[in-house]
Amino acid sequence: MRKNLYLIIISFSLVSCYTYQVKKPVDPLVDNKAGSKNSTTIANKTPTQTDNVISERQSPNLPQTPAPINIQEKLAPNKNVRIDVDGKAYKVIVDKWEGDSLVAHPVRNAKKTLKFHKNQINAERIAEKRFSQPIADIITVVAYAGIGFLIYSLVR
Questions:
Q1: DSSP secondary structure letter of residue 77
Q2: Mean pLDDT of 6-20
Q3: DSSP assignment string, 95-156
Q4: Distance between CA atoms of 106 and 98, rounded to whole angstroms?
Q5: How many CB atoms neighbour CB 121 within 10 A?
Q6: Rounded to 5 degrees, what are φ and ψ at 110?
Q7: What digits encode the pLDDT tens for the residues 48-84?
């Protein structure tokens, strides 16, 4: 039982609340004022005009092309990111940009320098290191439950 308890304690000490997350592109927000103006204009129109306006709203929008992603803005100096270069994932800290080349070093090895051309980097798979609140909450609940179990075991 003690070996299992020690193994559990060690495994929880190795868990990190930080994860690499890909930023989702921001969708253009629909202006609420424009929607309210359309509803008032529909009330003032004749039934045939109203049918035309409603059918225009229900028609599917043309697929919007995503805005081009600027890799140099996403990979600013001193950012801790995970990038995908030619099918291989690297966890790096960005040092600087030299023209079209990214100069970075691996997270655990500051002495090693890596250079990647911006065309080699998959812009859709750039993940920034961020704090994950759900993981932190799970670790907190498990820690409280462990402390409660320990107190219960000592009292009994």
A1: T
A2: 75
A3: EEEETTEEEEEETT-TT--EEEETTTB-GGG-EEEEE-HHHHHHHHHHHHHHHHHHHHHHH-
A4: 17
A5: 20
A6: -75, -20
A7: 554 554 444 444 554 554 555 678 888 889 989 999 9
Q: Does the global pTM surpass 0.70?
A: no
In the predicted structure, residue 42 carries a pLDDT above the cut 50: no
Residue 78 C-alpha from the chain's centroid: 18
* Residue 38, CB-side half-sphere exposure with 13 Å CA sphere: 14
Residue type, 102: L
The Cα–Cα gap between 92 and 80 comes to 6
The pair of three-digit structure tokens given for residue 31, joined into one six-digit string: 């202006």
Please state the separation of Cα 10 from the chain's center in Å.
28
Dihedral angle of Cα 102, 106, 112, 114, to the nearest 10 degrees? -20
Cα torsion 36, 61, 71, 121: sign: positive
The tens digit of pLDDT for each residue in 82-133 reads 999 988 999 999 999 998 899 999 998 889 999 999 889 988 889 898 888 8
Which tokens go with 81? 């990111």
